[in-house]
Design goal:
mainly alpha, 434 Repressor (Amino-terminal Domain), 0% strand
């Protein structure tokens, strides 16, 4: 699965957080977040962590 970068960025703007803060909230490294934000496939458990940190359902942030 691939993250929809634009949707994630809009949610980050809504929460007023940057990549580092999102990574901390999701319990992942900023580097891992950066890789999946730039188009690399994302495992379901990673998708779940990011979605939870953004307070949305996983299907709301995938392409």
């Amino acid at each position: 699965m691939r993250l929809d970068k634009r949707k994630v960025q809009l949610l980050m703007a809504e929460l007023e957080i940057g990549q580092q803060s999102l990574a901390i909230r999701a319990g992942i490294s900023r580097q891992t977040l950066s890789v999946v934000m730039n188009g690399r496939n994302c495992r379901p458990e990673l998708l779940g962590k990011i979605a939870k940190a953004l307070e949305v359902k996983p299907e709301e942030i995938i392409e």
